[in-house]
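In response to the reviewer comment on reproducibility (Comment 2.3), we provide here a single inverse folding case reported in full, input and output, so that an independent group could reproduce the run without further information from us. The structure tokens appear first.
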């Protein structure tokens, strides 16, 4: 497992499998794919977690949090940003 995954991703998957956890939080594409395809885990990313938090009333908007993440160096592609905003019912990037 550690050959294709970094130590953090491998640890998350190993802990989930050991504890019988079926859903994990992971953002890296390669790690998500391996967790899903190889280990049968359900994977949610940070964007999906924010969308769910909004749907449950924990936060009012997703966009400012995504923008803050990007401003602090977290990589979010325009496609992922727009998908999160669409799912959150917020205006997408470039839709003025």
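Designed residues, in position order:
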């Amino acid at each position: 497992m550690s050959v294709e995954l970094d130590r953090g991703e491998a640890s998350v998957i190993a802990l989930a499998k050991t504890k019988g956890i079926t859903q994990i939080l992971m953002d890296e594409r390669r790690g998500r794919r391996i967790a899903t395809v190889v280990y049968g885990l359900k994977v949610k990313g940070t964007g999906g977690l924010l969308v769910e938090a909004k749907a449950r009333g924990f936060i009012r908007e997703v966009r400012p949090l995504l923008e803050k993440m990007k401003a602090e160096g977290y990589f979010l592609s325009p496609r992922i940003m727009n998908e999160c905003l669409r799912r959150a019912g917020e205006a997408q990037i470039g839709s003025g």
